[in-house]
Amino acid sequence: MVPLLLVLLLALVLFGAGFAVKILWWVALAVLVLWLLGFVVRSTSAGGGRGRWYRW
């Protein structure tokens, strides 16, 4: 009975980790799109493409 519970617990943990990783990929994709949009908007609107679009 204990090995069965351990296998089910492992399956649950791996399913949860896979779901979290999938969400993180979607978050990373959304951040990339926002970053690219910010780059395009700032470079086209700030003095002929010479504008800084970041604050580093």
Automatic annotation (TrEMBL):
Q: Which domain of life is it from?
A: Bacteria
Q: Does the keyword Transmembrane helix apply?
A: yes
Question: Which keywords describe this protein according to UniProt?
Answer: Membrane, Transmembrane, Transmembrane helix
**Membrane spanning stretches:** 30-49
Please give the name of this protein: Hydrophobic protein
